[in-house]
Design brief:
Elements (H helix, E strand, L loop, with lengths): L5 H4 L14 E5 L2 E4 L4 E4 L2 H4 L8 H11 L12 H12 L5 E5 L2 H19 L6 E5 L8 H6 L3 H4 L9 E4 L4 H7 L4 E6 L2 E2 L5 E2 L2 H14 L2 E5 L23 E4 L10 E5 L1 H4 L15 H14 L4 H22 L4 E7 L2 E6 L3 H10 L2 E2 L1 E3 L3 E4 L7 H19 L3
Parallel strand pairs: 3-15, 5-6, 5-7, 7-10, 10-11
Antiparallel strand pairs: 1-2, 2-3, 4-12, 8-9, 11-12, 13-14, 14-17, 16-17
Helix pairs in contact: 3-11, 4-11, 12-14, 13-14
Amino acid sequence: MLKNEEGKFIINTYNRQPDFTPLIIKGKGTLVWDEKGKAYLDFVGGLAVNALGHAPPSVIEAAWEQMNKVIHTSNLYYSEPQIKLARCLVENSPADRVFFCNSGAEANEAAIKLARKYSKLYLGSGKFEIITALNSFHGRTLATVTATGQEKFQKGFEPLLPGFRYARFNDLDSFRAQLNDSTCAIMIEPVQGEGGVHVATVDFMVGLRRLCDENGILLIFDEVQCGTGRTGKFLACEHYGVQPDIFTLAKALGGGFPIGAMLCREKVASGFSPGDHASTFGGNPVACAAALAVMQEILQEGFLDNVITKGNYFQDKLRLLKEKFPGVIVEIRGKGLIIGVELKEKGSAVQRSCQEKGLLVNCIGDRVLRFLPPLNVSREEIDEALEVLSRSLEEVFSGE
């Protein structure tokens, strides 16, 4: 069996199990199939990557057309898909400029570098520290894993990069207490995804903007997971009426193609000069063509409103499940189609039971089930997922 060979050749950084983890060979819409022909309803979606589901026709067409023109060219030269995508992103966001890369971690790395460079140039040579939230997740590079406010991701990689402080999410006073003369920026996820789907409050987000303005520092939003339509707005920060100085995108932006973007205001962009930062594959023509197709889909009239409607429908149905299983579901959190269901325990067992019944969900730790279906998921598919979840909860918690 092919997947049994994985352990011979691939470094063991993912907790795959040959007797349990499926080998996905095909996907269409919200469905994927394994090597045995078993179908699964995919509510993991590549961890918020497959915004339009598997094999979306518009993305395939755009990528194929571009592949027949040019697959890659150096950033020493102009690129038509890159310029078109940058224009689309700027016209639909608070940003004035874009830097393209290949992933969320790279986008956040670029944001960290830009914040430091800009601040040293214009705010003072001693300003380099960035305050992030406890329970956050910003990536796996050495800088972004240091920015991540979770020790479990940092263990074994010490000494970590200097220049980061941590404060409590949704606690403005905690962030204020971490400010000092070295602070150059605050970096926050409007919705903490890997941290368990915790949603920022309006007062917190508005307060962070005010805090940054009062202290002359930058505000950075990590929208890698919660951006590109996931919450029912193109950017999650739109729910709060708050504009960042820098923000980052990735995951859903390429609809399955690897791409990341760091975007910022004109003044902040002046912190970078030629040679300060670069990416060989950043802004790849095929990835940019695919991302432009994704943008054109999600910006169609009514698309994002439907994400909000379906997200509300999903959460309403989950609340009924909470009533059906009293004491089992602790809390339901989310915005749009990023939803977390916190259980009292046994999240991994519920995840496994769902998978056996044909539903793929993600478990964070052993308590939070994270749902990240395609943004064009149907109500019927949501109902099907809920029915499987109900049977799995019954199976795992029967007799309690």
